[in-house]
Write a structure and sequence with these properties.
Layout lengths: L3 H28 L4 H23 L14 E5 L4 E5 L6 H14 L13 E10 L7 E11 L9 E4 L1 H4 L8
Parallel strand pairs: 2-3
Antiparallel strand pairs: 1-2, 3-4, 4-5
């Protein structure tokens, strides 16, 4: 995983390349080379690339790691207050709680808006079970609610549905 320091280093190299292309473009106009307009386009592209790398060097790209959390997949996200993640049917309630907390930290964004006025992000966790051949049934195992007002939310509300865990297939030895 790249760090902000890596992106700052890439920004410096990209900035140097941008200056080289700009100097070549100026030289191409002075000497009336046939590729002078292509060099202008390349210089513009390098400016955009350098700006993007600079922006990535300012924003941390780290993910939260909670001990005990398992891999999850983002299934549905409205971009505001509703999100659904999928987990393995072999998950335990303690792993689910850690996974929900990790998802709540990783999916938080300043850009999410509370469209219904509640300003809470609700993340529901589900898995798929197959009671018979060719049939898939989604089972919602729990949810977590966190505030959208601040990055750190010490009062996240976690709900685990123990009755749903009874529906999951038992591991075979």
């Amino acid at each position: 995983m790249f760090t902000t320091t890596d992106f700052l280093q890439y920004t410096q190299w990209s900035g140097i390349a941008t200056l080289v292309f700009a100097a070549l473009a100026v030289l191409a106009f002075i000497l009336k080379w046939g590729i002078r307009f292509r060099l202008v386009g390349t210089t513009g592209f390098m400016l955009v690339l350098t700006g993007g790398l600079f922006a990535l060097s300012l924003v941390p790209l780290s993910r939260t790691v909670i001990p005990g959390a398992v891999k999850y997949t983002l299934v549905y996200d409205t971009g505001s207050t509703q999100t659904v993640i999928a987990t393995s049917p072999k998950i335990s309630p303690s792993q689910l709680e850690a996974t929900l907390r990790q998802a709540a930290n990783n999916l938080y964004s300043y850009g999410r808006l509370g469209s219904r006025g509640d300003n809470y992000l609700t993340i529901r966790a589900r898995t798929l079970i197959h009671p018979e051949q060719g049939v898939s049934v989604p089972v919602y195992l729990g949810q977590i609610k966190r505030t959208l007002a601040t990055r750190e939310d010490p009062q996240m509300s976690v709900e685990i549905y123990p009755e749903k865990f009874a529906q999951l297939p038992k591991p075979t030895a």
